[in-house]
Amino acid sequence: MRFCPVNISFTDVWEHGTSRCFHETVSAAVCSLIVVVFGAVQLIIYYKYATPAPRPPGWGLSEERRKSLSFLYQVQIGLTYLLAAYFILRLALQGNVLEGPIVGYMILSSCLWWISFMMSLAIMRIERKYMLPSVPTRGHGLVLLIFWTALFVSENLAFLNLNREKEWWFHVTSTADKVEMSFFIVRYLSTLILFVLGLKAPGLTTAYNAGEDFGIIDEENGQARGTTFKNLYVKIKTLAPFIWPRKSPLLQMSVIFCFTLLAFGRVINLYVPIYGRAIVDSMSGEKVVFRWDLVLIFVAFKFLQGGGTGGMGVLNNLRSFLWISIQQYTTRAVQVELFAHLHSLSLRWHLGRKTGEVLKVMNRGTDSANSLLSSVLFSILPTLVDIFVAVAYFVVAFDYRFGLIVFITMGLYIAVTVMVTEWRTKFIRSMNLADNAKEARSVDSLLNFETVKYYNAEVYEVDAYREAIYKYQKEEWKSSATLNLLNTVQNFVVSGGLLAGSLLCVYIVAEKKGLTVGQYVLFTMYILQLYVPLNWFGTYYRLIQRNFIDMENMFDLLREEKEVVDAPGAGPLVLPSPTPQAGSADIEFFGVSFGYSPYRPVLKSISFAVPHGKTVALVGPSGSGKSTIIRLLFRFYDVQGGAIFVGGQNVKTVTQNSLRAAIGVVPQDTVLFNNSIKFNIQYGRVDATEDEIIAAAKHADIHNQILTFSDGYETVVGERGLKLSGGEKQRVAIARTILKSPHFILLDEATSALDTQTERNIQSALYHICNNRTTLIIAHRLSTIIHADQILVLNEGEIIERGRHEELLSKGGKYAQMWEEQLTNKDAEKREEAPDTPADGSVEAVRPDHHH
Fold it and tell me: In the CATH scheme, what is the homologous superfamily, with its name and number, of domain 238-559?
């Protein structure tokens, strides 16, 4: 039995196309090698390490979506069985319905194809039912994806044989040709559907990747996300205000001129190869003519165009120069808007976020906005226009077959790029999440530098950061590996189209059927000029897709709803009169209830009033709700029951800015900017003079301490003020509040970090700024609030006692108990600090083992 038909040699590879013997043998051998050898390795790995999938495919999706995915999976299985049966059926029909005897390559290729499809079925089923413990299922493995890609590419390579007269059936001149053509259509459609469904992976949509379209889960909230371009209109609408410079006519003119240059560049791209053809034709005829004018025009056009992508041309450089200002406008608008939005969000939101992760999202999102504009407007859009121009030109000036080749190649290339890139989206998203976690881990560790040192946790932090890097690199590897797969598929398509078009053009020129050498030069120049940006199309599309992914988190931030907002028509706070009516109150709480979560109420129907110019103190154990009252008054949160009035106005009916401008707060935990002491004090009133800053520092009893520093008021306090002691930080905060000179004063454990002597010094300063000002104090040391006009004792979110210091002591209640405990503790501390004294009154030497 011969391996190839009579008069056909396996070694004769090319003659206006390839022989079926060579084509089918090589295709079957390559595809079977991929799926059998590497598939066997995959099955071994699954046999050793895989565990049953914990949840059925489609878990967590709607019933309709689950049925749809199950149907698509059955289509995958059915098409695989169909293709396996096809090669056996075709072999059986050979010699009967089909023309020609059975030869060796038919038996070999049929067996290889059958084995390949059976192996692919085994891999599909094991991927559906099992999963590797370290890698959650996110789609089919590389073996199946490469196999289906190679299978589809092998069917497309058959188009290279359109002009081969022997063996192939494209001319459809007999019954056998019609049967073969029908078989080819079935095979082509089946392999195309398998390729597309392989990217979708309907049989693997488990709880780990149950996405609306391509099995994508948002790992932050567990909700399914669709493709990158899902809700494209909403994303563009969100980004649109930052693109068009509405307030700058000059920038608007720059945008219009940039698009004019872009359109002019498309015309230049068409005429460069046309003049190249004219130059060649002027030299290839019987009479050679020195056409210096054509050469000058050609060089001038190349000067304007630059390289194949226009990367060095005058038009591109001028457009890039004009676009700099527009790009900066977009960056500035996006960053300012996002930064302002972050500052408008509630304290609850900020307490639940990681600063490093937010900054990473902010930076990546703003960078991606600019990159997106450049890629779409100056890469993708011009490439698509060039493709349509090229197809139209080749159909009109050459032959419809050239236009068809260009159109099929470009369309197939774009389709493959889009589908594979969409499939890769899940890996890029996972890599971004791992990158966010890595950055957040490093920032969080460095911000807590002192805590790490306190507990000797350097090794633990380094190991945790190393583990975060490992997780990121694992996701990065998946992204890079799938990128290589995409590049390989793209190369197959581009090379096939270039080969088909070049062979057809050379054949027509050689047979003298209407094309000249100059037209061949025009064709090759135009195709190469077109293919260079087309090769970048995948890169730009991936960049656009990556930009959309990067912007998703930024869009999430922009869509984050503000918990505390000004009511419609809210006006500024009207400050109380310096001489109010008798009995009027500046601050009033009426039945206020609040809880940070629905299941844990913090305040329970709190009611009290702070009269004008008076001081009210809040005391009680930790967790009783004292600091929460301060936060509600400053409107970090809105009350869930009752109302708060300031100057007779409900805080919900006035603007937040006016309310907070009238209130000065000295918090318990003071956080400073990583800037100079002068800057941190001046932050209380940014337009304050240096003399006013120094005066505020003196009142806060920190001026002399600042002068002992090497740089004085220019001393940098470090990250979060870590270079200063707790007492120094608190005194800076007090100076800042003194400089602000607010109408109301809120002191939240303002002297908690101070020693006794400094506390006494600052008490006079606090008395100075609180004098004749409405003041609300949270105190732990009861000795600091004995002067208060009223003391409220809180316990478990309720006011259990109220009155002046003497009144509460006389009641003998909770306040009297707390006072007695503090006196007892203070006496004990004094006894510990005093030397031991024997009973006879003599002073005994301090023993070496006596420690304070």
Answer: ABC transporter type 1, transmembrane domain (1.20.1560.10)
